[in-house]
Amino acid sequence: MKPMLKKLAGLVLLAVSCCATAHATPLTILVSIDGMRPDYLERGVTPNLNRLAAGGARAVAMRPSFPSITFPNHYTLVTGLRPDHHGVVDNNMDDAEIPGVRFSMDNPAAVTDRRWWDQAEPVWVTAELHGIRSGTLFWPGSEAAIHGVRPTVAPPFDSKHPAVVRVDRLLSWLGRANVEPLGFATLYLDDVDHAGHTFGPDSGQTTRAVARIDQAIGQLIDGLAKRHLGANIVIVSDHGMAPVSAERVVRMDRLLPEGSYRKVVSGPYAGMEAMPGREDQLAAALLKPQDHMQCWRKGELPARLAYGHNARVPAFICLADTGWMLTFNDKALGKGGAHGYDNVAPEMGAIFIATGPAFKPGVVLPAFDNVDVYPLLMRLLNLEPLPSDGDITPLLPALAP
Ligand SMILES: [Zn+2]
Q1: What is the predicted pLDDT for the residue at 5?
Q2: Helix, strand, or coil here: 120?
Q3: What is the 178 CA–ligand 1 centroid distance (Å)?
Q4: Residue 224: which residues within 8 A CB-CB, separation 6 or more?
Q5: What letter does residue 359 receive in the DSSP assignment?
Q6: Which of 12, 286, 306, 365 has most Cβ atoms within 10 angstroms of its Cβ?
Q7: 264: CA distance to ligand 1 center in Å?
Q8: 249-335, which class in CATH?
Q9: For residue 67, cis peptide bond before it (omega within 30 degrees of 0)
Q10: How many whole angstroms separate alpha carbon 35 and alpha carbon 59?
């Protein structure tokens, strides 16, 4: 077939599959409340979330993937792959195959560069390829053309957007006359994480941030009702939060021979590369019993962490005991809260609430892994899930027959 004809035939096929699928699929909204712990729902400030949980399904807790930090887990939620398998192994990354660029969450040139994301295919890319339109009111990865595809609507991340403005903006995309409806939408809310970091998970400020976010969720539910839009809503978080203290700090720079390493990441876990010719010296300093942390070569982490085989993971990883911080200078002393610890630590637990026509009311699920959210989202969208680390089985009791 001539290239042009082939292109046209593809377009026709796409158009046919587009409208047939889009009309048959009810809207699915995936909401992330960054840093929201399950026990925050018991502080008496979340009437809307608790009502949704009672009218649908919730998990006692959801286990994040390691490392229990934001970008890796957001990409896990929409791909079903552990960070080691989807390639977004950290909020800050180096990759020898992408020389001269450091990936970081707040570097627009990096987050929009598909090479960092192309090791996996998120829900919205598969959805768009099947004619289901998607809109992302922020989600890590949504600003890159992953496999050449972007969500239909995907404004660039703006941290200054208050939660209520985000909800209004999302609602403005829905229920519009003469516009092909969205089948999949995401909403990302970060107030709870910010308060947890700055003031700690047990602070009044964090509780007030939880209350604010709960009001935004109420606004979303009211807005959907006003537009007579039935939707399946899946509300998750990416990780929890642990209190940290200046009394619980390990000074890595004082333990390691000067000039033997390059720090890649620090905090609840640390990542280091050896300087040329200094690997044995660095290994000898790290790979022995340590107070308040454990260290491994990247390929030797415990299998349950499912981490360390991706080329982007640094050569040595140390994981602090929950509540401890690994630092390389005296600037970053622990205060407030942190996450990134062992993904089975109770403080790192995340929330899962699902409501809408696809879910039974009043279901409480035992804790499950966050890789299992992906096959659920694909089921809600009537799409075949790609191979992943997730399994829908733990979530089946939540689904209406
Ligand atoms: Zn986060």
Answers
A1: 40
A2: coil
A3: 37
A4: 171, 174, 230, 231
A5: B
A6: 286
A7: 19
A8: alpha beta
A9: yes
A10: 16
Separation of 34 CA from ligand 1 center, angstroms?
5
By annotation, the residues acting in catalysis are 70
Element containing residue 74 per DSSP (H, E): helix 70-79
Give me the pLDDT at residue 235, please.
98
The mean predicted confidence, pLDDT, of the chain is 93
Rounded Cα distance between 85 and 71, Å, is 14
C-alpha 239 – ligand 1 centre gap (Å)? 6
Enclosing H/E stretch for 265: strand 261-265
CATH 3.40.720.10 intervals, the chain: 3-242+343-398
CA of 364 to the centre of ligand 1 (A): 24
Q: What is the pLDDT of residues 44-87, one digit of tens each?
A: 999 999 999 999 999 999 999 999 999 999 999 999 999 999 99
* Token pair 């620090």 in the structure block, residue: 266
Per-residue tokens: 236: 């998750």
- Which residue is associated with the tokens 């050449």? 148
Residue 285 token pair: 């300093």
Distance 255 CA to ligand 1 centre (A): 29
SS (H, E, C) 28-71: EEEEEECCCCHHHHHCCCCHHHHHHHHHCEEECCEECCCCCCHH
Helix (H, G, I), strand (E, B) or coil at 113: coil
* CATH fold for domain 3-242+343-398: Alkaline Phosphatase, subunit A (3.40.720)
CA distance 34 to 71: 10
Contact (CB, 8 A) for 320 and 17: no
* Residue type (1 letter), 119: Q
338, two tokens: 């942190």
The residues of the chain that CATH labels 3.30.1360.180 are 249-335
Give me ligand 1 centre to Cα 267, in Å.
Answer: 14
pLDDT in tens, 254-276: 999 999 999 999 999 999 999 99
